[in-house]
Write a structure and sequence with these properties.
The protein is of the alpha/beta class. 28% of the residues lie in helices and 24% in strands. The strands form two sheets. Strands 1, 9, 10, 11, 12, 13, 14, 15 and 16 form a nine-stranded mixed beta sheet that branches.
Protein backbone atom coordinates (compact mmCIF):
# COMPACT_ATOMS: atom_id res chain seq x y z
CA UNK A 1 0.00 0.00 0.00
CA UNK A 2 1.29 3.47 -0.88
CA UNK A 3 1.86 5.91 1.98
CA UNK A 4 -1.08 8.05 0.95
CA UNK A 5 -3.75 5.40 0.41
CA UNK A 6 -6.41 5.37 3.11
CA UNK A 7 -7.78 2.11 4.47
CA UNK A 8 -11.02 3.87 5.40
CA UNK A 9 -11.36 6.24 2.45
CA UNK A 10 -15.05 5.28 2.24
CA UNK A 11 -15.56 7.32 5.42
CA UNK A 12 -14.01 10.46 3.95
CA UNK A 13 -16.47 12.59 2.01
CA UNK A 14 -14.91 14.43 -0.89
CA UNK A 15 -13.56 16.85 -1.75
CA UNK A 16 -11.49 16.99 1.42
CA UNK A 17 -8.04 17.76 2.75
CA UNK A 18 -6.26 14.99 4.64
CA UNK A 19 -3.37 15.67 6.98
CA UNK A 20 -0.84 12.85 7.35
CA UNK A 21 0.18 13.52 10.94
CA UNK A 22 3.35 11.40 10.94
CA UNK A 23 4.70 13.30 7.94
CA UNK A 24 3.92 16.65 9.59
CA UNK A 25 6.02 15.55 12.57
CA UNK A 26 8.84 14.54 10.21
CA UNK A 27 8.74 17.96 8.54
CA UNK A 28 9.00 19.71 11.90
CA UNK A 29 11.95 17.52 12.85
CA UNK A 30 13.70 18.22 9.56
CA UNK A 31 13.18 21.98 9.97
CA UNK A 32 14.91 21.88 13.33
CA UNK A 33 18.00 20.28 11.79
CA UNK A 34 18.32 23.07 9.23
CA UNK A 35 19.20 25.81 11.72
CA UNK A 36 21.77 26.11 14.51
CA UNK A 37 19.36 27.38 17.16
CA UNK A 38 15.68 26.45 17.39
CA UNK A 39 15.01 29.83 19.03
CA UNK A 40 15.80 31.45 15.69
CA UNK A 41 12.78 29.79 14.13
CA UNK A 42 9.62 31.87 13.72
CA UNK A 43 7.38 29.74 11.48
CA UNK A 44 4.51 31.38 9.63
CA UNK A 45 1.19 29.69 10.41
CA UNK A 46 -0.68 30.97 7.34
CA UNK A 47 -0.19 27.55 5.73
CA UNK A 48 -1.84 25.44 8.43
CA UNK A 49 -4.27 27.69 10.36
CA UNK A 50 -4.88 24.78 12.75
CA UNK A 51 -4.51 24.84 16.54
CA UNK A 52 -3.39 21.19 16.73
CA UNK A 53 -0.63 21.79 14.20
CA UNK A 54 0.61 24.83 16.10
CA UNK A 55 0.59 22.65 19.22
CA UNK A 56 2.82 20.09 17.49
CA UNK A 57 5.36 22.84 16.83
CA UNK A 58 5.16 24.04 20.42
CA UNK A 59 5.73 20.50 21.67
CA UNK A 60 8.79 20.34 19.42
CA UNK A 61 10.25 23.35 21.21
CA UNK A 62 9.38 26.13 18.75
CA UNK A 63 8.43 29.23 20.74
CA UNK A 64 8.08 32.02 18.18
CA UNK A 65 5.53 32.33 15.40
CA UNK A 66 4.47 34.64 12.60
CA UNK A 67 0.98 35.13 11.19
CA UNK A 68 -0.95 37.31 8.75
CA UNK A 69 -4.41 37.72 10.28
CA UNK A 70 -5.96 38.55 13.63
CA UNK A 71 -7.64 35.12 13.59
CA UNK A 72 -4.29 33.38 13.13
CA UNK A 73 -2.87 35.45 15.97
CA UNK A 74 -5.80 34.50 18.19
CA UNK A 75 -5.38 30.82 17.33
CA UNK A 76 -1.80 31.08 18.59
CA UNK A 77 -2.95 32.85 21.72
CA UNK A 78 -5.45 30.05 22.36
CA UNK A 79 -2.62 27.48 22.43
CA UNK A 80 -0.43 29.69 24.66
CA UNK A 81 2.24 30.44 22.06
CA UNK A 82 4.81 32.61 23.87
CA UNK A 83 5.68 35.01 21.03
CA UNK A 84 3.48 35.99 18.05
CA UNK A 85 4.34 38.50 15.32
CA UNK A 86 1.42 39.77 13.25
CA UNK A 87 3.34 40.34 10.02
CA UNK A 88 0.60 42.51 8.61
CA UNK A 89 0.31 46.20 9.35
CA UNK A 90 -2.89 46.72 11.38
CA UNK A 91 -5.04 49.53 10.04
CA UNK A 92 -8.38 50.84 11.31
CA UNK A 93 -10.37 48.38 13.48
CA UNK A 94 -7.53 45.84 13.36
CA UNK A 95 -5.55 47.97 15.81
CA UNK A 96 -8.36 47.74 18.35
CA UNK A 97 -8.71 44.00 17.74
CA UNK A 98 -4.98 43.57 18.29
CA UNK A 99 -5.29 45.43 21.59
CA UNK A 100 -8.14 43.09 22.55
CA UNK A 101 -5.90 40.10 21.77
CA UNK A 102 -3.19 41.50 24.04
CA UNK A 103 -5.75 41.90 26.81
CA UNK A 104 -7.39 38.51 26.30
CA UNK A 105 -4.21 36.41 26.03
CA UNK A 106 -1.70 37.90 28.51
CA UNK A 107 0.51 34.80 28.37
CA UNK A 108 1.40 35.62 24.74
CA UNK A 109 3.63 38.51 23.68
CA UNK A 110 2.07 39.95 20.53
CA UNK A 111 3.80 42.31 18.13
CA UNK A 112 3.14 43.77 14.68
CA UNK A 113 4.79 45.62 11.82
CA UNK A 114 4.51 49.14 10.44
CA UNK A 115 5.97 50.98 7.46
CA UNK A 116 4.96 54.62 8.07
CA UNK A 117 4.84 57.11 10.95
CA UNK A 118 1.11 57.79 10.66
CA UNK A 119 0.17 54.15 11.30
CA UNK A 120 2.80 53.87 14.02
CA UNK A 121 1.25 56.87 15.76
CA UNK A 122 -2.26 55.41 15.45
CA UNK A 123 -1.08 52.14 17.03
CA UNK A 124 0.72 54.02 19.78
CA UNK A 125 -2.28 56.21 20.61
CA UNK A 126 -4.63 53.24 21.04
CA UNK A 127 -2.20 51.22 23.18
CA UNK A 128 -1.00 54.19 25.22
CA UNK A 129 -4.60 55.06 26.07
CA UNK A 130 -4.78 51.70 27.84
CA UNK A 131 -1.42 52.13 29.53
CA UNK A 132 0.22 49.54 27.26
CA UNK A 133 3.14 49.39 24.85
CA UNK A 134 3.16 47.06 21.84
CA UNK A 135 6.39 45.71 20.32
CA UNK A 136 6.56 46.92 16.70
CA UNK A 137 8.88 45.97 13.85
CA UNK A 138 9.61 48.23 10.90
CA UNK A 139 8.47 46.45 7.74
CA UNK A 140 11.09 46.75 4.99
CA UNK A 141 10.52 46.54 1.26
CA UNK A 142 13.45 44.48 -0.04
CA UNK A 143 12.03 43.94 -3.53
CA UNK A 144 8.62 42.37 -3.02
CA UNK A 145 7.05 45.79 -3.71
CA UNK A 146 3.96 44.96 -1.73
CA UNK A 147 4.35 46.63 1.66
CA UNK A 148 7.22 48.08 3.61
CA UNK A 149 9.59 51.02 3.51
CA UNK A 150 12.85 50.68 1.61
CA UNK A 151 15.85 50.26 3.91
CA UNK A 152 17.76 53.51 4.07
CA UNK A 153 17.57 56.95 5.64
CA UNK A 154 13.76 57.09 5.79
CA UNK A 155 13.59 53.66 7.43
CA UNK A 156 16.18 54.72 10.00
CA UNK A 157 14.16 57.84 10.73
CA UNK A 158 11.01 55.75 11.16
CA UNK A 159 12.76 53.38 13.55
CA UNK A 160 14.06 56.30 15.59
CA UNK A 161 10.57 57.80 15.61
CA UNK A 162 9.18 54.63 17.19
CA UNK A 163 11.36 55.34 20.22
CA UNK A 164 9.49 58.60 20.76
CA UNK A 165 6.04 57.02 20.89
CA UNK A 166 4.58 56.13 24.31
CA UNK A 167 2.47 53.17 23.12
CA UNK A 168 5.04 51.11 21.19
CA UNK A 169 8.36 49.40 21.79
CA UNK A 170 10.71 49.30 18.78
CA UNK A 171 11.44 45.59 18.39
CA UNK A 172 13.37 45.24 15.16
CA UNK A 173 13.16 44.87 11.41
CA UNK A 174 10.97 42.65 9.23
CA UNK A 175 12.12 41.79 5.70
CA UNK A 176 10.11 39.40 3.53
CA UNK A 177 11.77 38.47 0.24
CA UNK A 178 8.97 36.39 -1.28
CA UNK A 179 9.83 37.57 -4.77
CA UNK A 180 12.98 35.44 -4.69
CA UNK A 181 12.22 31.82 -5.55
CA UNK A 182 14.67 30.79 -8.28
CA UNK A 183 15.19 27.04 -8.55
CA UNK A 184 18.94 27.49 -9.06
CA UNK A 185 20.27 27.86 -5.52
CA UNK A 186 23.29 29.91 -6.61
CA UNK A 187 21.02 32.45 -8.31
CA UNK A 188 18.61 32.45 -5.38
CA UNK A 189 21.43 33.04 -2.89
CA UNK A 190 22.90 35.85 -4.95
CA UNK A 191 19.54 37.64 -5.09
CA UNK A 192 18.81 36.96 -1.43
CA UNK A 193 22.19 38.30 -0.29
CA UNK A 194 21.72 41.42 -2.41
CA UNK A 195 18.28 42.04 -0.94
CA UNK A 196 19.51 41.46 2.61
CA UNK A 197 22.60 43.68 2.43
CA UNK A 198 20.65 46.96 2.93
CA UNK A 199 18.82 45.37 5.89
CA UNK A 200 22.12 44.52 7.59
CA UNK A 201 23.39 48.02 6.82
CA UNK A 202 20.26 49.55 8.38
CA UNK A 203 20.71 47.42 11.50
CA UNK A 204 24.28 48.74 11.80
CA UNK A 205 23.03 52.32 11.41
CA UNK A 206 20.47 51.76 14.16
CA UNK A 207 23.19 50.57 16.53
CA UNK A 208 25.45 53.44 15.47
CA UNK A 209 22.72 55.88 16.53
CA UNK A 210 23.03 54.53 20.10
CA UNK A 211 19.90 52.39 19.95
CA UNK A 212 19.74 48.70 20.95
CA UNK A 213 20.54 46.10 18.31
CA UNK A 214 17.31 45.38 16.42
CA UNK A 215 15.95 41.87 16.03
CA UNK A 216 15.75 40.93 12.34
CA UNK A 217 12.98 38.64 11.04
CA UNK A 218 13.70 37.66 7.46
CA UNK A 219 12.67 35.41 4.61
CA UNK A 220 10.13 32.74 3.79
CA UNK A 221 10.42 29.17 2.54
CA UNK A 222 12.55 29.72 -0.61
CA UNK A 223 15.22 31.77 1.18
CA UNK A 224 15.06 29.94 4.51
CA UNK A 225 18.20 27.80 3.91
CA UNK A 226 20.13 30.98 3.08
CA UNK A 227 18.97 33.08 6.04
CA UNK A 228 19.38 30.09 8.38
CA UNK A 229 23.15 30.41 7.90
CA UNK A 230 23.20 34.01 9.08
CA UNK A 231 23.87 34.53 12.76
CA UNK A 232 21.20 35.75 15.13
CA UNK A 233 18.35 36.57 12.70
CA UNK A 234 14.96 34.87 12.99
CA UNK A 235 13.68 32.85 10.02
CA UNK A 236 10.06 32.43 8.93
CA UNK A 237 9.35 29.45 6.69
CA UNK A 238 5.70 28.40 6.59
CA UNK A 239 4.93 25.95 3.80
CA UNK A 240 7.42 23.40 5.18
CA UNK A 241 4.76 22.10 7.56
CA UNK A 242 2.63 20.60 4.76
CA UNK A 243 4.77 21.24 1.62
CA UNK A 244 3.22 21.30 -1.84
CA UNK A 245 3.85 20.45 -5.48
CA UNK A 246 5.10 23.92 -6.36
CA UNK A 247 7.83 24.10 -3.74
CA UNK A 248 8.61 20.40 -4.06
CA UNK A 249 9.36 21.01 -7.73
CA UNK A 250 11.10 24.38 -7.44
CA UNK A 251 13.06 23.99 -4.18
CA UNK A 252 14.77 20.60 -4.57
CA UNK A 253 17.31 21.28 -1.84
CA UNK A 254 14.55 21.15 0.79
CA UNK A 255 13.54 17.56 1.52
CA UNK A 256 10.21 18.19 3.21
CA UNK A 257 7.46 15.67 2.58
CA UNK A 258 3.98 16.22 1.20
CA UNK A 259 1.92 15.99 4.37
CA UNK A 260 -1.50 17.17 3.15
CA UNK A 261 -3.40 15.88 0.14
CA UNK A 262 -6.70 16.81 -1.46
CA UNK A 263 -8.98 13.79 -1.79
CA UNK A 264 -11.49 13.70 -4.64
CA UNK A 265 -13.60 11.17 -6.53
CA UNK A 266 -14.64 10.40 -10.06
CA UNK A 267 -18.26 11.52 -10.32
CA UNK A 268 -18.74 10.92 -14.05
CA UNK A 269 -17.08 9.07 -16.92
CA UNK A 270 -17.54 11.31 -19.95
CA UNK A 271 -16.12 9.11 -22.69
CA UNK A 272 -13.21 6.75 -23.34
CA UNK A 273 -10.57 9.32 -22.38
CA UNK A 274 -12.30 11.88 -20.17
CA UNK A 275 -13.49 11.75 -16.57
CA UNK A 276 -14.87 14.32 -14.14
CA UNK A 277 -13.84 14.75 -10.49
CA UNK A 278 -15.57 16.62 -7.66
CA UNK A 279 -12.58 18.97 -7.33
CA UNK A 280 -13.67 22.38 -8.54
CA UNK A 281 -11.79 25.61 -7.98
CA UNK A 282 -13.72 26.02 -4.71
CA UNK A 283 -11.74 23.03 -3.46
CA UNK A 284 -8.15 23.68 -4.54
CA UNK A 285 -6.22 26.95 -4.89
CA UNK A 286 -7.12 28.39 -8.28
CA UNK A 287 -4.90 31.46 -8.56
CA UNK A 288 -2.30 29.59 -10.65
CA UNK A 289 -2.58 28.16 -14.17
CA UNK A 290 -3.34 24.47 -14.57
CA UNK A 291 -2.31 21.95 -13.47
CA UNK A 292 -3.30 23.06 -9.97
CA UNK A 293 -2.99 19.59 -8.48
CA UNK A 294 -0.78 16.56 -9.18
CA UNK A 295 -2.49 13.21 -8.67
CA UNK A 296 -0.20 10.64 -7.08
CA UNK A 297 -2.28 7.70 -8.33
CA UNK A 298 -2.86 9.19 -11.79
CA UNK A 299 0.24 11.26 -12.59
CA UNK A 300 -0.43 11.36 -16.34
CA UNK A 301 -3.95 12.78 -15.98
CA UNK A 302 -4.24 16.13 -17.73
CA UNK A 303 -6.70 18.85 -16.73
CA UNK A 304 -9.07 19.91 -19.50
CA UNK A 305 -11.38 22.30 -17.67
CA UNK A 306 -12.32 23.30 -14.15
CA UNK A 307 -15.38 25.06 -12.80
CA UNK A 308 -16.71 25.72 -9.32
CA UNK A 309 -17.42 22.09 -8.40
CA UNK A 310 -15.96 20.05 -11.30
CA UNK A 311 -12.58 19.12 -12.73
CA UNK A 312 -12.46 17.38 -16.11
CA UNK A 313 -9.37 15.27 -16.76
CA UNK A 314 -8.06 13.58 -19.86
CA UNK A 315 -6.69 10.09 -19.21
CA UNK A 316 -5.35 7.35 -21.45
CA UNK A 317 -8.11 4.90 -20.54
CA UNK A 318 -11.20 6.07 -18.65
CA UNK A 319 -12.21 2.47 -17.95
CA UNK A 320 -9.43 2.37 -15.34
CA UNK A 321 -11.23 5.04 -13.32
CA UNK A 322 -14.88 4.06 -12.77
CA UNK A 323 -17.26 6.33 -10.90
CA UNK A 324 -16.27 6.44 -7.23
CA UNK A 325 -12.52 6.03 -7.80
CA UNK A 326 -10.60 7.99 -5.17
CA UNK A 327 -7.92 10.39 -6.41
CA UNK A 328 -5.10 11.55 -4.12
CA UNK A 329 -3.72 14.93 -5.14
CA UNK A 330 -0.82 17.17 -4.11
CA UNK A 331 -1.92 20.82 -4.53
CA UNK A 332 0.34 23.15 -6.47
CA UNK A 333 -0.20 25.73 -3.70
CA UNK A 334 -1.21 24.34 -0.33
CA UNK A 335 -1.67 27.55 1.72
CA UNK A 336 -4.85 28.89 0.05
CA UNK A 337 -6.07 25.33 -0.51
CA UNK A 338 -6.23 24.63 3.23
CA UNK A 339 -8.15 27.88 3.74
CA UNK A 340 -10.96 26.57 1.52
CA UNK A 341 -11.97 23.91 4.06
CA UNK A 342 -13.66 24.10 7.45
CA UNK A 343 -11.96 20.95 8.71
CA UNK A 344 -9.20 18.55 7.81
CA UNK A 345 -9.26 14.80 8.18
CA UNK A 346 -6.22 13.50 10.07
CA UNK A 347 -4.54 10.24 9.12
CA UNK A 348 -2.22 8.26 11.36
CA UNK A 349 -0.43 5.85 9.10
CA UNK A 350 -2.94 4.92 6.41
CA UNK A 351 -6.05 5.40 8.51
CA UNK A 352 -8.09 8.52 9.18
CA UNK A 353 -8.52 8.70 12.95
CA UNK A 354 -9.70 12.25 13.63
CA UNK A 355 -10.51 15.61 12.14
CA UNK A 356 -9.17 19.04 13.06
CA UNK A 357 -10.98 22.32 12.62
CA UNK A 358 -9.17 24.79 10.38
CA UNK A 359 -10.05 27.42 12.91
CA UNK A 360 -8.08 30.36 11.53
CA UNK A 361 -9.55 30.15 8.02
CA UNK A 362 -12.25 32.48 9.38
CA UNK A 363 -11.57 36.17 9.58
CA UNK A 364 -12.70 36.19 13.19
CA UNK A 365 -12.67 33.58 15.96
CA UNK A 366 -13.71 35.60 19.03
CA UNK A 367 -11.82 38.90 18.97
Amino acid sequence: MEWYQLTNAAQVDSPAVVIYKDRVAENISLLKTMIDDIQRLRPHVKTNKISEVAQLMLEAGIQRFKCATIAEAEMLGMVNAPDVLLAYQPVGPKVVRLLELVQKYPQTVFSCITDNPETALAISDIFAAQGRRLPVYVDLNVGMNRTGIKPGAAALELYQYLHKLPGVIPAGLHAYDGHIHDTDMDVRKEKCDAAYAPVAALADQIEASNLPQPVIVAGGSPTFPIHAKRKHIQCSPGTFIFWDWGYGRNLPEQAFKWAVLVISRVISVIDETHICLDLGHKSVAAESPQPRVHFLNAPAATPVSQSEEHLVLKVADASLYPVGTVFYGVPLHICPTVALYEKAYVATGNTVTANWRIIARDRQIVV
